[in-house]
Amino acid sequence: MTTPTSPLAADLPQERRLVTAIPGPKSAELQARRVSAVSAGVGATLPIYIEAAGGGVLLDIDGNSLIDLGSGIAVTSVGNAAPKVVAAVQEQVAKFTHTCFMVTSYEGYVEVCEALNRLTPGDHEKRSALFNTGAEAVENAVKIARAYTKRDAVVVFEHGYHGRTNLTMAMTAKNMPYKNSFGPFAPEVYRVPLSYPFHDGRDGAKAAADAISRIDKEIGADNVAAIVIEPIAGEGGFIVPAEGFLPALVEYSNANGIVFVADEVQSGFCRTGAWFASEHEGIVPDIITTAKGIAGGLPLAGVTGRAEIMDSVHVGGLGGTYGGNPVACAAALGSIATMEELDLNAAAREIEAVMRPRLSTIADKTGVIGEIRGRGAMIAVEIVKPGTDEPDAALTAAVAKACHAQGVVVLTAGTYGNVLRFLPPLTIPAHLLDEALTVLEEQFLALTGH
Ligand SMILES: *Cc1c(COP(=O)(O)O)cnc(C)c1O
């Protein structure tokens, strides 16, 4: 479908431009091929096919240019095909593509681990290990915590999302679409209540006391290897726990020999206006898992933790054929350099400063936004029946669909399917973010009869 004249990311006009309906005829044709070639179990938010992407736009094969407020689910934070990522990948891929780090090693892997150890919270001695996906990182964090503590139990939270492998399905809260019909699930995973201020009204201390009481009464602190939590629940709907909730859990973990794992696969790497979302609450996790935004779109994931924990595993106990692939490591180093040079933490904070007032205006005009929440460029609105906290999943889906038809890619989330989440590339040009918010407002107004 692509032609030799397909534009490069760097040459894409930074504009929203619709030349066909969404999807256009070429995408529709490819969609038909997909149906007969690709498992129906693999879904898609929009039935369009992309031939180039960069800055703040996705160009589809019909020539439509859409504004990207999703970043491929918080992955292309540095922008799609970011120049430093492209250059680093091109250089590495022409030298060697793979050796397996566990067979013969290379510098890029070590350099990424050094960067992770430097950038993650806490100035203690750290070690890292690299994998391919977020789910793999979370699984390995659990393996490491179990080896270190010689305990079995893993504590996770309502609304949590940790992946689609067997262990991480067990750790993930939501049944559809992640778990339904895929059991039985891994044992020794216990779910306790999250702090969800909009729905539970509890302060952080009360919410933490409730969770801790459940752990003490139903599991027993001495049996717990790890508490695993997203500092901001991603797929759960960008739920920011009440202030004090995370520090209380860290304190409890420290007092009871439990490994506290922050799953920052979605919230990490400048997304929230800090290198890691843990920083907003001043917590220092024992282990932190990373993936998504780390490598500008190439598959890479990391587990970073206290040296004594990370080094407690027997030699050969951690690894995988592709983990820390040299091309993915080059991409990560290009991404991290981009984040530092362009100060993408500041860019994420600026995106929040632009978005919040615009979303407040929509909330005031329509009455259907129960809460605007999140941090930095990880912002969401929870959509409710006016004046209540009752979820309105139908309106949420309708707004998303209407935005897609107008050439703005937005994603939904939330246990109740009533959260619209925004994850723009941190490099999105200001005029595109502004235009996307105007489109969003128009769809909200139209669909609520305003
Ligand atoms: C996406 C995600 C994962 C899983 O990552 P994959 O790369 O899809 O396996 C794990 N934890 C969190 C918080 C995520 O957002």
Structural notes for this entry:
It is a single chain. With 450 residues, the chain is an alpha/beta fold. The chain folds into 2 domains: 7-81 and 343-448, Aspartate Aminotransferase, domain 1 (Alpha-Beta Complex); 98-324, Type I PLP-dependent aspartate aminotransferase-like (Major domain) (Aspartate Aminotransferase, domain 2), CATH 3.40.640.10. It is built from 14 helices and 15 strands. It has helices at 25-37, 71-74, 83-93, 107-119, 134-149, 166-171, 197-200, 204-218, 245-255, 307-310, 326-341, 344-366, 393-405, 430-447; strands spanning 50-54, 57-60, 65-68, 126-131, 153-157, 189-192, 224-229, 259-263, 287-290, 301-306, 369-375, 378-383, 408-409, 411-413, 419-422. The strands form 3 sheets. It has a 7-stranded mixed sheet with strand order 4-10-9-8-7-5-6, with helices on both faces. The longest helix has 23 residues, at 344-366. The relative contact order is 0.16. The protein binds pyridoxal-5'-phosphate (PLP). Residues 133-135, 138, 161-163, 230, 234-235, 263, 265-266, 291-292 line the site of pyridoxal-5'-phosphate.
